[in-house]
Design brief:
The longest helix has 8 residues. The chain has one domain: Porin (Beta Barrel), CATH 2.40.160.60. The chain contains 2 helices and 24 strands.
């Protein structure tokens, strides 16, 4: 079952690379796998998700927009005992657009829609007192921005919140991460536990009612992206074969976006979640020869509570995924993967009232990554 260092390095990078579609606004999964690669390493990737979220009851054929997000990382083994790294991802986000001709979610030729975008830059420094142990920590820089429009009878029509818009201007804030890893490279065993802090934002906000007739600018809206814990594990199980697993917890059950004037008008939050997210992925990776390796995985996500917001009406998922990797030389590889999501049915609500049920939802995810060892 022992693996030489080249085989081990190739297998260590044969991990699920297709995008996440998780509870709350979770997207990337916030992996630090690139930082735990041996030696000097750099990678760049892109992930694409094509979801379909529908409600026959409400005559909504699809309200979930396709989206893509890039990622990149570099890790340098500065000395025998010190490593440094820089990771970029887009950890949280949302992109939805209802049909404008649906009276429940549209009015005056306009539709309910949401766009939330985040960017994360994590700087890490690791200390390896022995070959087996790695202790790491560092600051996290994060930006958040978003826009939401509510239209239609689901929000009480034009006389209430069915003509509401909000623009949350980009805000930057800082958090931190810390963790440790233990490895035995000869058998490709590695386990890591990583904690990320919550990050508090105060976003300049403009709220508009009555299709632009009434503007409420110069307010602040608090958004706190959740703390989380990732547990990663892998081990060799046979010659050129490893098993891997990831468990993630994200603290969504106290998450709420409460704009000042919307809350004054309705007594409600714009977005909130009732449960924490638990997710897990398990799978196997195998090196077929000096150039080719592959992986297969299954996954589960608990969701963040049901009923859920109309801006993201799904509740958890199950997945299956396949990945392949081509290594033209020992020091670089190209990786591609695909993942199918069975998205959970959910009751969509607004203002505490259930609007309807979204069922038979699914998504396809695709990923491409290039890695280089130097």
């Amino acid at each position: 079952m022992k693996l030489n260092k080249i085989y081990s390095a190739i297998l260590l990078s044969t991990l699920p690379l297709t995008p996440a579609l998780a509870a709350g606004l979770d997207r990337s999964g916030q992996s630090i796998a690139a930082f735990l690669q041996p030696g000097n390493y750099a990678e760049a990737g892109i992930s694409v998700l094509d979801p379909k979220v529908q409600s026959n009851q409400l005559k909504v054929n699809d309200m979930a927009e396709d989206y893509y997000f890039p990622s990149a990382a570099i890790k340098v083994q500065a000395t025998e005992h010190i490593s440094i790294g820089l990771l970029y991802d887009q950890p949280f986000g949302a992109e939805s657009l209802y049909p404008s001709n649906n009276l429940v979610f549209g009015a005056n030729g306009e539709a309910t829609q949401v766009e939330v975008e985040t960017h994360n830059l994590s700087a890490l420094i690791g200390y390896q007192p022995t070959e087996n142990w790695n202790f790491y920590a560092g600051p996290v820089y994060q930006t958040v921005q978003g826009t939401v429009s509510l239209r239609g009878l689901a929000y009480g029509g034009a006389s209430k919140l069915g003509s509401y818009d909000i623009n949350l201007k980009e805000d930057e804030a800082y958090g931190w991460l810390a963790g440790f890893a233990y490895q035995i490279p000869e058998i490709a065993l590695k386990t890591a536990v990583t904690y990320r802090s919550e990050i508090k934002h105060e976003l300049d906000t403009t709220e508009t009612f009555g299709f632009g007739a009434i503007q409420r600018p110069n307010a602040l809206t608090e958004v706190v992206t959740p703390q989380s814990v990732n547990i990663d594990f892998q081990t060799g199980v046979a010659a050129n074969t490893l098993a891997f697993a990831n468990i993630r917890w994200a603290h969504w059950d106290q998450f709420a976006v409460t704009p000042k004037f919307l809350n004054a008008a309705s007594g409600n939050n714009l977005i909130d979640y009732s449960d924490d997210q638990w997710s897990a992925t398990v799978g196997v990776g195998r090196k077929f020869n000096s150039h080719w390796s592959g992986s297969a995985s299954v996954g589960y996500d608990s969701g963040a509570g049901n009923p859920v917001t109309t801006l993201g009406p799904t509740e958890g998922y199950w997945t299956v995924g396949l990945g392949g990797q081509y290594s033209p030389a020992e020091n670089y590889f190209i990786q591609a993967g695909v993942k199918y999501f069975w998205l959970g049915d959910a009751h969509a609500q607004t203002g505490g009232n259930i609007v309807g049920e979204f069922t038979d939802n699914y998504a396809l995810g695709y990923g491409l990554k290039i890695g280089y060892r130097f």
